What we know:
single chain; alpha+beta; four-stranded antiparallel beta sheet; two-stranded parallel sheet; 16 helices; 10 strands; 11% strand
Amino acid sequence: MNSSINYQALAEKIKRWGTELGFAQVGICDIDLAEHEEKLQAWLDNSYHGNMDYMAKHGLARARPDAIHPGSIRVISARMNYLPQQAKFAKILNKPKHAYVSRYALGRDYHKLVRKRLKQLGDRIKQYCETLDFRPFVDSAPILERPLAEKAGLGWVGKHSLLINQQAGSWFFLGELLVNIPLPVDTQVPEQCGQCVACLKICPTQAIVEPYVVDARRCISYLTIELRDAIPVQLRPLIGNRIYGCDDCQLICPWNKYGQLSQEDDFQARQDLDNIELLGVFSWDEETFLEKTQGSPIRRIGFDCWQRNIAVGLGNATYDPDIVAALNQKRESASEMVKEHIDWALDQQLSKAQQQIIPVNQRLQARLVRSIEKGLPRDA
Protein backbone atom coordinates (compact mmCIF):
# COMPACT_ATOMS: atom_id res chain seq x y z
CA MET A 1 0.00 0.00 0.00
CA ASN A 2 1.33 3.41 -0.92
CA SER A 3 2.05 5.07 2.44
CA SER A 4 2.66 8.47 0.84
CA ILE A 5 -1.04 8.98 0.10
CA ASN A 6 -2.97 11.30 2.40
CA TYR A 7 -6.14 9.24 2.75
CA GLN A 8 -7.96 11.94 4.70
CA ALA A 9 -7.44 14.36 1.82
CA LEU A 10 -8.39 11.64 -0.65
CA ALA A 11 -11.65 10.97 1.20
CA GLU A 12 -12.55 14.65 0.92
CA LYS A 13 -11.76 14.57 -2.79
CA ILE A 14 -13.91 11.46 -3.26
CA LYS A 15 -16.91 13.20 -1.72
CA ARG A 16 -16.39 16.24 -3.91
CA TRP A 17 -16.01 14.11 -7.02
CA GLY A 18 -19.18 12.23 -6.07
CA THR A 19 -21.13 15.47 -5.92
CA GLU A 20 -19.74 16.50 -9.31
CA LEU A 21 -20.97 13.19 -10.72
CA GLY A 22 -24.53 13.82 -9.53
CA PHE A 23 -24.60 12.04 -6.19
CA ALA A 24 -26.39 13.87 -3.40
CA GLN A 25 -24.04 12.49 -0.75
CA VAL A 26 -21.10 10.13 -0.38
CA GLY A 27 -19.94 8.41 2.80
CA ILE A 28 -17.30 5.85 3.78
CA CYS A 29 -17.42 2.91 6.20
CA ASP A 30 -15.62 -0.31 7.05
CA ILE A 31 -16.97 -3.68 5.93
CA ASP A 32 -17.93 -5.13 9.33
CA LEU A 33 -21.62 -6.13 9.28
CA ALA A 34 -21.38 -8.92 11.85
CA GLU A 35 -24.09 -7.36 14.03
CA HIS A 36 -26.59 -7.81 11.19
CA GLU A 37 -25.97 -11.50 10.58
CA GLU A 38 -28.34 -12.82 13.26
CA LYS A 39 -31.21 -10.60 12.07
CA LEU A 40 -30.57 -11.57 8.46
CA GLN A 41 -30.64 -15.26 9.32
CA ALA A 42 -33.87 -14.87 11.31
CA TRP A 43 -35.47 -13.05 8.36
CA LEU A 44 -34.51 -15.90 6.05
CA ASP A 45 -35.61 -18.56 8.55
CA ASN A 46 -39.06 -16.94 8.68
CA SER A 47 -39.24 -17.18 4.86
CA TYR A 48 -39.87 -13.44 4.68
CA HIS A 49 -37.93 -13.42 1.40
CA GLY A 50 -40.77 -15.28 -0.31
CA ASN A 51 -39.80 -16.67 -3.72
CA MET A 52 -36.61 -14.59 -3.91
CA ASP A 53 -34.42 -17.69 -3.75
CA TYR A 54 -31.27 -15.68 -4.39
CA MET A 55 -31.68 -14.18 -0.92
CA ALA A 56 -31.37 -17.58 0.74
CA LYS A 57 -28.79 -18.82 -1.76
CA HIS A 58 -26.22 -16.25 -0.66
CA GLY A 59 -27.28 -16.34 2.99
CA LEU A 60 -24.88 -14.60 5.36
CA ALA A 61 -22.54 -13.70 2.51
CA ARG A 62 -24.74 -10.62 2.14
CA ALA A 63 -23.26 -9.37 5.40
CA ARG A 64 -19.67 -10.08 4.34
CA PRO A 65 -18.62 -7.67 1.55
CA ASP A 66 -15.07 -9.01 1.39
CA ALA A 67 -16.50 -12.40 0.40
CA ILE A 68 -18.00 -10.74 -2.66
CA HIS A 69 -14.89 -8.76 -3.56
CA PRO A 70 -11.83 -10.18 -1.78
CA GLY A 71 -9.36 -7.64 -0.52
CA SER A 72 -11.99 -4.98 0.21
CA ILE A 73 -11.58 -3.11 3.48
CA ARG A 74 -13.80 -0.06 2.90
CA VAL A 75 -17.13 0.75 1.29
CA ILE A 76 -17.80 4.06 -0.44
CA SER A 77 -21.56 4.45 -0.23
CA ALA A 78 -23.42 7.00 -2.36
CA ARG A 79 -27.00 8.13 -2.75
CA MET A 80 -28.73 9.76 -5.70
CA ASN A 81 -32.14 11.48 -5.56
CA TYR A 82 -34.81 10.06 -7.86
CA LEU A 83 -38.08 11.84 -7.02
CA PRO A 84 -39.55 13.21 -10.29
CA GLN A 85 -40.30 16.91 -10.63
CA GLN A 86 -44.07 16.24 -10.77
CA ALA A 87 -44.63 13.33 -8.40
CA LYS A 88 -48.49 13.36 -8.41
CA PHE A 89 -48.77 10.95 -5.49
CA ALA A 90 -52.26 11.34 -4.04
CA LYS A 91 -53.63 12.55 -7.35
CA ILE A 92 -53.10 9.11 -8.88
CA LEU A 93 -53.75 6.98 -5.79
CA ASN A 94 -57.13 8.69 -5.42
CA LYS A 95 -58.11 7.87 -9.00
CA PRO A 96 -59.03 4.16 -8.97
CA LYS A 97 -59.15 3.95 -12.76
CA HIS A 98 -55.61 5.31 -13.11
CA ALA A 99 -52.46 3.21 -12.86
CA TYR A 100 -50.03 3.92 -10.03
CA VAL A 101 -46.37 3.17 -10.73
CA SER A 102 -43.84 3.57 -7.94
CA ARG A 103 -42.12 6.90 -8.37
CA TYR A 104 -38.66 5.36 -8.72
CA ALA A 105 -39.76 3.48 -11.85
CA LEU A 106 -41.32 6.32 -13.85
CA GLY A 107 -38.11 7.09 -15.73
CA ARG A 108 -35.13 5.11 -16.99
CA ASP A 109 -33.72 2.13 -15.16
CA TYR A 110 -31.44 3.49 -12.45
CA HIS A 111 -29.08 0.51 -12.33
CA LYS A 112 -26.99 1.40 -15.37
CA LEU A 113 -26.95 5.14 -14.66
CA VAL A 114 -25.87 4.85 -11.02
CA ARG A 115 -23.37 2.09 -11.76
CA LYS A 116 -21.83 4.16 -14.56
CA ARG A 117 -21.37 7.11 -12.20
CA LEU A 118 -19.83 4.84 -9.56
CA LYS A 119 -17.46 3.42 -12.16
CA GLN A 120 -16.48 6.97 -13.11
CA LEU A 121 -15.87 7.75 -9.45
CA GLY A 122 -13.69 4.66 -9.09
CA ASP A 123 -11.70 5.62 -12.17
CA ARG A 124 -11.05 9.10 -10.74
CA ILE A 125 -9.81 7.60 -7.47
CA LYS A 126 -7.54 5.21 -9.36
CA GLN A 127 -5.90 8.15 -11.15
CA TYR A 128 -5.00 9.49 -7.72
CA CYS A 129 -4.23 6.12 -6.14
CA GLU A 130 -2.78 3.52 -8.51
CA THR A 131 -3.04 0.72 -5.93
CA LEU A 132 -6.82 1.01 -5.87
CA ASP A 133 -8.86 -2.08 -6.64
CA PHE A 134 -12.59 -1.36 -6.75
CA ARG A 135 -15.92 -2.84 -7.75
CA PRO A 136 -19.21 -0.94 -8.09
CA PHE A 137 -22.55 -2.37 -6.94
CA VAL A 138 -26.11 -1.22 -7.61
CA ASP A 139 -28.44 -4.04 -6.57
CA SER A 140 -26.09 -6.21 -8.61
CA ALA A 141 -24.72 -8.47 -5.88
CA PRO A 142 -25.81 -9.91 -2.52
CA ILE A 143 -24.82 -7.03 -0.27
CA LEU A 144 -26.62 -5.28 2.61
CA GLU A 145 -26.56 -1.82 1.07
CA ARG A 146 -28.76 -0.05 3.62
CA PRO A 147 -26.78 -1.10 6.71
CA LEU A 148 -23.62 -0.08 4.85
CA ALA A 149 -25.10 3.30 3.93
CA GLU A 150 -26.14 3.68 7.55
CA LYS A 151 -22.58 2.97 8.74
CA ALA A 152 -21.30 5.46 6.18
CA GLY A 153 -23.39 8.23 7.72
CA LEU A 154 -25.90 8.63 4.87
CA GLY A 155 -28.86 8.21 7.20
CA TRP A 156 -30.52 5.58 9.37
CA VAL A 157 -32.61 2.53 8.55
CA GLY A 158 -36.22 3.39 9.34
CA LYS A 159 -38.94 1.10 10.65
CA HIS A 160 -40.03 0.43 7.06
CA SER A 161 -36.47 -0.90 6.43
CA LEU A 162 -35.58 1.94 4.02
CA LEU A 163 -32.79 4.44 4.59
CA ILE A 164 -33.88 7.87 5.86
CA ASN A 165 -31.78 10.99 5.64
CA GLN A 166 -32.53 13.90 7.96
CA GLN A 167 -32.14 16.47 5.18
CA ALA A 168 -33.54 14.46 2.28
CA GLY A 169 -36.08 11.89 3.46
CA SER A 170 -35.86 8.56 1.62
CA TRP A 171 -36.45 9.28 -2.07
CA PHE A 172 -33.02 8.19 -3.31
CA PHE A 173 -31.10 5.27 -4.81
CA LEU A 174 -28.06 3.72 -3.18
CA GLY A 175 -24.87 2.39 -4.71
CA GLU A 176 -21.52 1.19 -3.41
CA LEU A 177 -17.87 0.99 -4.34
CA LEU A 178 -15.94 -1.75 -2.55
CA VAL A 179 -12.31 -0.64 -2.29
CA ASN A 180 -9.03 -1.95 -0.89
CA ILE A 181 -7.60 1.31 0.51
CA PRO A 182 -7.71 2.44 4.17
CA LEU A 183 -9.87 5.53 3.81
CA PRO A 184 -11.02 7.20 7.05
CA VAL A 185 -14.57 6.20 7.94
CA ASP A 186 -17.52 8.49 8.61
CA THR A 187 -19.61 8.64 11.76
CA GLN A 188 -22.92 6.81 11.83
CA VAL A 189 -25.91 9.08 12.48
CA PRO A 190 -28.39 8.14 15.24
CA GLU A 191 -31.75 6.60 14.38
CA GLN A 192 -34.47 9.26 14.61
CA CYS A 193 -37.77 7.47 14.07
CA GLY A 194 -38.56 7.74 17.76
CA GLN A 195 -42.02 6.44 18.68
CA CYS A 196 -43.42 6.98 15.19
CA VAL A 197 -45.08 3.91 13.65
CA ALA A 198 -46.88 5.65 10.79
CA CYS A 199 -45.29 3.39 8.17
CA LEU A 200 -46.47 0.25 9.96
CA LYS A 201 -50.03 1.53 10.16
CA ILE A 202 -50.28 2.83 6.59
CA CYS A 203 -49.01 -0.30 4.82
CA PRO A 204 -52.02 -1.55 2.78
CA THR A 205 -51.14 -5.21 3.31
CA GLN A 206 -49.53 -4.93 6.77
CA ALA A 207 -46.26 -6.20 5.34
CA ILE A 208 -44.18 -4.43 8.01
CA VAL A 209 -44.72 -7.13 10.61
CA GLU A 210 -42.67 -5.34 13.27
CA PRO A 211 -40.38 -2.31 13.29
CA TYR A 212 -37.53 -2.79 10.79
CA VAL A 213 -38.90 -6.15 9.55
CA VAL A 214 -40.77 -6.54 6.26
CA ASP A 215 -42.46 -9.77 5.21
CA ALA A 216 -41.87 -9.55 1.46
CA ARG A 217 -44.66 -12.07 0.83
CA ARG A 218 -47.18 -9.39 1.80
CA CYS A 219 -45.37 -6.37 0.34
CA ILE A 220 -47.01 -4.84 -2.75
CA SER A 221 -43.60 -4.12 -4.27
CA TYR A 222 -42.75 -7.81 -4.00
CA LEU A 223 -46.16 -8.95 -5.23
CA THR A 224 -46.12 -6.72 -8.31
CA ILE A 225 -42.41 -6.89 -9.17
CA GLU A 226 -40.60 -9.92 -7.73
CA LEU A 227 -43.39 -12.51 -7.66
CA ARG A 228 -43.77 -14.42 -10.93
CA ASP A 229 -46.76 -16.52 -9.87
CA ALA A 230 -50.36 -15.70 -9.03
CA ILE A 231 -50.90 -12.95 -6.47
CA PRO A 232 -52.66 -14.37 -3.37
CA VAL A 233 -56.40 -13.74 -3.70
CA GLN A 234 -56.76 -12.29 -0.20
CA LEU A 235 -54.17 -9.59 -0.97
CA ARG A 236 -55.53 -8.48 -4.34
CA PRO A 237 -58.20 -6.07 -3.05
CA LEU A 238 -55.54 -4.37 -0.89
CA ILE A 239 -53.33 -3.57 -3.87
CA GLY A 240 -55.76 -1.00 -5.25
CA ASN A 241 -54.45 0.63 -8.43
CA ARG A 242 -50.77 0.02 -7.68
CA ILE A 243 -49.54 -1.90 -10.72
CA TYR A 244 -45.78 -1.62 -10.13
CA GLY A 245 -44.44 -1.15 -6.63
CA CYS A 246 -45.79 0.90 -3.74
CA ASP A 247 -44.73 4.15 -2.05
CA ASP A 248 -47.18 4.32 0.86
CA CYS A 249 -44.67 3.81 3.68
CA GLN A 250 -42.54 6.61 2.26
CA LEU A 251 -45.48 8.90 1.61
CA ILE A 252 -46.54 8.79 5.25
CA CYS A 253 -43.02 9.25 6.68
CA PRO A 254 -42.70 12.68 8.35
CA TRP A 255 -39.07 12.94 7.25
CA ASN A 256 -40.11 13.02 3.61
CA LYS A 257 -41.30 16.58 3.96
CA TYR A 258 -37.59 17.19 3.34
CA GLY A 259 -37.60 15.00 0.23
CA GLN A 260 -35.48 16.43 -2.59
CA LEU A 261 -36.45 16.39 -6.26
CA SER A 262 -34.13 14.75 -8.74
CA GLN A 263 -32.26 16.87 -11.24
CA GLU A 264 -31.57 13.86 -13.46
CA ASP A 265 -33.49 13.97 -16.73
CA ASP A 266 -33.43 10.17 -16.89
CA PHE A 267 -35.46 9.90 -13.67
CA GLN A 268 -38.32 12.10 -14.89
CA ALA A 269 -41.58 10.40 -15.91
CA ARG A 270 -41.80 8.89 -19.39
CA GLN A 271 -44.63 7.45 -21.50
CA ASP A 272 -47.20 9.32 -19.34
CA LEU A 273 -46.75 6.64 -16.68
CA ASP A 274 -47.35 9.26 -14.00
CA ASN A 275 -50.86 9.99 -15.31
CA ILE A 276 -52.25 7.10 -17.35
CA GLU A 277 -55.45 5.09 -16.97
CA LEU A 278 -55.45 1.37 -16.30
CA LEU A 279 -57.32 0.73 -19.55
CA GLY A 280 -54.62 2.62 -21.39
CA VAL A 281 -51.78 0.35 -20.25
CA PHE A 282 -54.00 -2.74 -20.43
CA SER A 283 -54.51 -2.13 -24.13
CA TRP A 284 -50.80 -2.62 -24.86
CA ASP A 285 -49.84 -5.81 -26.65
CA GLU A 286 -46.48 -7.39 -25.89
CA GLU A 287 -44.71 -5.53 -28.68
CA THR A 288 -46.04 -2.22 -27.39
CA PHE A 289 -45.06 -3.15 -23.84
CA LEU A 290 -41.48 -3.84 -24.91
CA GLU A 291 -41.36 -0.61 -26.90
CA LYS A 292 -42.85 1.57 -24.15
CA THR A 293 -40.68 0.06 -21.40
CA GLN A 294 -37.37 0.14 -23.26
CA GLY A 295 -34.75 1.32 -20.79
CA SER A 296 -37.26 1.12 -17.93
CA PRO A 297 -37.01 -1.07 -14.82
CA ILE A 298 -40.59 -2.16 -15.56
CA ARG A 299 -39.51 -4.28 -18.50
CA ARG A 300 -37.83 -6.86 -16.28
CA ILE A 301 -41.11 -8.17 -14.86
CA GLY A 302 -42.25 -9.25 -18.32
CA PHE A 303 -45.51 -8.83 -20.18
CA ASP A 304 -47.45 -11.52 -18.29
CA CYS A 305 -46.81 -10.02 -14.85
CA TRP A 306 -47.57 -6.56 -16.26
CA GLN A 307 -50.99 -7.77 -17.46
CA ARG A 308 -51.55 -9.66 -14.22
CA ASN A 309 -50.95 -6.51 -12.16
CA ILE A 310 -53.20 -4.35 -14.32
CA ALA A 311 -55.97 -6.95 -14.20
CA VAL A 312 -55.91 -6.72 -10.41
CA GLY A 313 -56.06 -2.94 -10.65
CA LEU A 314 -59.04 -3.13 -13.00
CA GLY A 315 -60.79 -5.50 -10.61
CA ASN A 316 -60.29 -2.95 -7.84
CA ALA A 317 -61.55 -0.04 -9.95
CA THR A 318 -65.11 1.23 -9.76
CA TYR A 319 -67.56 -0.57 -12.03
CA ASP A 320 -67.28 0.37 -15.68
CA PRO A 321 -68.71 -1.59 -18.65
CA ASP A 322 -65.63 -0.56 -20.65
CA ILE A 323 -63.46 -2.34 -18.08
CA VAL A 324 -65.57 -5.48 -18.35
CA ALA A 325 -65.31 -5.38 -22.14
CA ALA A 326 -61.54 -4.90 -22.05
CA LEU A 327 -61.09 -7.77 -19.59
CA ASN A 328 -63.19 -10.12 -21.71
CA GLN A 329 -61.35 -9.14 -24.87
CA LYS A 330 -57.89 -9.60 -23.32
CA ARG A 331 -58.92 -12.94 -21.81
CA GLU A 332 -58.97 -14.61 -25.22
CA SER A 333 -55.22 -14.25 -25.74
CA ALA A 334 -54.00 -14.20 -22.12
CA SER A 335 -51.81 -16.82 -20.48
CA GLU A 336 -53.38 -19.10 -17.89
CA MET A 337 -51.93 -17.05 -15.02
CA VAL A 338 -53.21 -13.77 -16.44
CA LYS A 339 -56.55 -15.34 -17.33
CA GLU A 340 -57.05 -16.36 -13.68
CA HIS A 341 -56.52 -12.74 -12.59
CA ILE A 342 -58.83 -11.49 -15.33
CA ASP A 343 -61.55 -13.85 -14.11
CA TRP A 344 -61.07 -12.52 -10.59
CA ALA A 345 -61.30 -8.96 -11.88
CA LEU A 346 -64.48 -9.77 -13.81
CA ASP A 347 -66.03 -11.21 -10.63
CA GLN A 348 -65.12 -8.00 -8.78
CA GLN A 349 -66.64 -5.85 -11.49
CA LEU A 350 -69.81 -7.97 -11.52
CA SER A 351 -70.14 -7.67 -7.76
CA LYS A 352 -69.80 -3.88 -7.96
CA ALA A 353 -72.32 -3.71 -10.80
CA GLN A 354 -74.83 -5.61 -8.68
CA GLN A 355 -74.21 -3.30 -5.75
CA GLN A 356 -75.03 -0.35 -8.00
CA ILE A 357 -78.11 -1.96 -9.50
CA ILE A 358 -79.73 -3.08 -6.24
CA PRO A 359 -79.98 0.41 -4.70
CA VAL A 360 -81.40 1.71 -7.98
CA ASN A 361 -84.04 -1.04 -7.98
CA GLN A 362 -84.88 -0.25 -4.38
CA ARG A 363 -85.42 3.40 -5.22
CA LEU A 364 -87.58 2.49 -8.23
CA GLN A 365 -89.64 0.12 -6.10
CA ALA A 366 -90.17 2.78 -3.42
CA ARG A 367 -91.20 5.30 -6.08
CA LEU A 368 -93.65 2.76 -7.55
CA VAL A 369 -95.18 2.11 -4.12
CA ARG A 370 -95.66 5.83 -3.57
CA SER A 371 -97.27 6.19 -6.98
CA ILE A 372 -99.65 3.32 -6.27
CA GLU A 373 -100.50 4.73 -2.90
CA LYS A 374 -101.31 8.13 -4.39
CA GLY A 375 -103.66 6.49 -6.86
CA LEU A 376 -105.59 4.47 -4.31
CA PRO A 377 -108.98 5.71 -2.92
CA ARG A 378 -108.73 7.23 0.54
CA ASP A 379 -110.75 4.39 2.05
CA ALA A 380 -108.91 1.59 0.34
